[in-house]
Amino acid sequence: MSVKTEAIINAQIETEKPGVGVFELPLGVVLADGTRVTNVTIKELTGVEEDLLASGNSSNALQVMEKVITNCIVSLGDIEHHLIPSMVKNMTVGDRTFLLFAIRRVTFGDTYPFDFTCPSCSHKESLQISLGSLETKVPEDPAQRVFSAISPTGMGIAYHIATGVDEAKSVSSREKGSVLSRAIMLRLDLLNGDVPTLEAVKALSMRDRMFIRKEFDANDGGVDTTLELTCSACSFETKSELELMPDFFFPSEM
Question: Residue 185 in contact with residue 194, Cβ under 8 Å?
Answer without folding.
Answer: no
